TrEMBL record:
Family annotation (InterPro entries): AB_hydrolase_1, AB_hydrolase_fold
The UniProt record lists the keyword Hydrolase: yes
Keywords attached to this entry: Hydrolase
Coiled-coil blocks: none
Species for this entry: Pseudohalioglobus sediminis
UniProt region (Disordered), positions on chain: 13-32
Molecular function as annotated in GO: hydrolase activity
Residue span, AB hydrolase-1 domain: 63-165
Full protein name: Alpha/beta hydrolase
Length: 249
């Protein structure tokens, strides 16, 4: 089932988790496929009128969390778009994502809780890749302060296991992280509304690892961008705006 006003055929909605093969670590040729991401930049340049027709999301507030080794500026274009649509969109405030989601989620919990109290409403958390892992754990820890979580290109299964970052973490650490995630999902599934955006063209995170089968309120959307171009894909921006508007109703 397709959705969205912008290139509807490029977005597929799954109300139930889609079937998927076992995740595997991306192969070199898949990483090379990331070069196709320039197409999404071109699409973005010519999508101004369509993006301006997306919902007014005044009254919403969101924190944007970058991916592994990425600076806050990587979320800047999406932040600019969301602010133009009325959202109080903010960077996460921790600078470059250094790759320690356990430490960073603990640090972010306090910030989210305090900001939620200050604003008098829960916040949406939007995470790209590893940023989505952090967003999920913050929502698990303080659901009362989180209105929803939106992730794109985020590994739900295995942590870094099915990404090129696996070699940086090492086999033992990957196994530990994978077991921890499985334990948390079984004992304390995420309860807030969760939007999972994934792409079969993702050359960095194995797309089957992005499929969430444990959260209580999850919907999946498939797009056609590569992993590195998701942050500039107008289809992703459309989904983010529409989900913020939907949960804010």
């Amino acid at each position: 089932m397709s959705t969205g006003d912008l290139d509807m055929e490029r977005i597929i909605k799954f109300d139930a988790p889609p079937s998927a093969p076992d995740p595997t670590r991306p192969r070199p040729r898949q990483l090379l496929g990331e070069a196709r991401g320039y197409r999404d930049v071109v699409r973005l340049v010519f999508s101004g009128s369509e993006l301006r027709r997306q919902p007014d999301i005044s009254g919403t507030a969101a924190i944007l969390i970058p991916g592994w080794k990425a600076p806050e500026a990587s979320m800047g274009p999406l932040r600019f778009f969301l602010r133009r649509r009325g959202c109080d969109a903010r960077h996460w405030g921790l600078g470059v994502n250094r790759g320690d989601p356990e430490r960073d989620s603990e640090r972010l919990v306090a910030s989210v809780h305090n900001l939620s109290q200050e604003l008098g409403k829960p916040l949406a958390l939007i995470g790209w890749s590893l940023g989505g892992v952090i967003a999920r754990e913050v929502a698990r820890e303080c659901p009362e302060a989180v209105s929803q979580v939106i992730t794109y290109g985020t590994p739900v299964i295995g942590g870094p296991t099915f990404t090129p970052a696996a070699s940086s973490y090492g086999k033992d650490e990957c196994r530990r992280i994978s077991a921890k995630i499985t334990e948390l999902d079984a004992a304390s599934p995420i309860s807030v509304p969760l939007t999972v955006i994934f792409s079969r063209r993702d050359g960095v995170v194995s797309w089957p690892a992005c499929i969430d089968r444990s959260s209580l309120q999850v919907v999946h959307y498939e797009v056609e961008s590569t992993h590195l171009s998701m942050g500039l894909d107008p289809s992703v921006w459309t989904l983010v705006a529409q989900q913020l508007a939907r949960v804010n109703i």
